[in-house]
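sanity check this chain:
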Amino acid sequence: MAARRRIDPAAGAQALRQWAQEQDDSQKTAEMKADGSMSPADRAARRRVTATAVRYTLEELAACAPGRSVEVRVPPFGVTQAVAGTVHRRGTPPSVVETDAPTWLALATGRLTWQDALDGGALQASGERCDLSAYLPVVRL
């Protein structure tokens, strides 16, 4: 049985495209104040886009790698269990992957490789099934 989606795929894909555009747009200074900071409204909007994109890509991972042997954590935005194998029910899962939102979204879209994220210290992974490189990227932009 497939997991119930919480993020509408169209809304998730749109948020992911918007996140990618923001990453590509180095001239984002039109939104920024003279001191380089964003307005609270712009910051809140960007956070909503990031949250939706993260949750959407975590759902995509769970769909393409169904199972419960690896817990993927992207605090504070989301967590999912994926990859077939030992079923996790209580306590610490047998395999855990944890990273921040920008790193996860870069991995999920193929902008960053698994090995580069590990080597750079942006990704923590432990357990026998924690290497998700076979499932990445989960979305091609």
Strands lie at 70-74, 78-82, 95-99, 123-126. The CA atoms of residues 11 and 52 lie 8 Å apart. The chain has a mean pLDDT of 88.
